[in-house]
Design the sequence.
């Protein structure tokens, strides 16, 4: 039996996942959390156990990427399948670099989800053919990688939020960080990207399909 733990802040998504998995004989859901803090508190319980975590990227407070990094330290053998509303272009490579064993978008069909869970549990990885092509294209071509690849995960997250039109204050509230911290991140993003304004970030993000 494959024991699955869900981390998603939307009840309707969790219920949908439960319904899909309830139709299988070899997969069961053993728990759920709505944010990073809930997840960490449960993982620290000595009785907690799961084989694989279905993890959303966009969570209240700390992001799913930050949570993934911490959980890989706490539970090195735990496997992760990121299930996100964001396209592969936006977060897939970062999730895989942080230790995820697969990345799927939430518009995938149910059969893909259960197949991905089984593949990851057996020691494999799940990536789409289009993502596999992107990964192959990056091998040995670091010089040609897009500018946003030079950003840290936090800087990338801030850049996407700025590009989507959110203010520094709004981002600080959403990420539960200080305005000063977000302002510093914004300055670093602009410097690394060689830009001066949020409008330039928005144009770049749209051109590179980093925002919807």
Sequence:
């Amino acid at each position: 039996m494959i024991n699955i733990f869900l981390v998603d802040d939307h009840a309707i998504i969790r219920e949908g996942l439960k319904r899909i998995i309830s139709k299988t004989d070899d997969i069961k859901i053993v728990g759920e959390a709505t944010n990073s803090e809930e997840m960490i508190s449960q993982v620290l319980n000595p009785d907690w156990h799961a084989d694989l975590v279905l993890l959303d990227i966009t969570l209240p407070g700390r992001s799913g990427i930050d949570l993934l990094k911490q959980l890989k330290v706490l539970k090195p053998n735990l496997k992760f399948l990121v299930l996100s509303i964001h396209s592969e272009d936006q977060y897939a490579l970062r999730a895989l670099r942080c230790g995820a064993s697969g990345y799927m978008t939430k518009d995938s069909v149910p059969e893909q989800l259960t197949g991905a869970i089984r593949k990851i549990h057996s020691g494999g990885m799940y990536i789409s053919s289009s993502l596999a092509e992107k990964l192959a294209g990056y091998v040995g071509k670091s010089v040609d990688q897009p500018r946003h690849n030079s950003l840290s995960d936090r800087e990338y997250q801030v850049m996407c939020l700025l590009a989507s039109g959110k203010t520094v204050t709004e981002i600080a509230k959403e990420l539960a960080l200080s305005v000063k911290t977000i302002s510093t991140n914004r300055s670093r993003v602009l410097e690394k990207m060689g830009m001066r304004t949020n409008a330039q970030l928005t144009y770049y993000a749209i051109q590179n399909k980093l925002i919807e």
Observations:
- The chain has a mean pLDDT of 88.
- The longest strand covers residues 27-33.
- The longest helix spans residues 179-193.
- The radius of gyration is 18 Å.
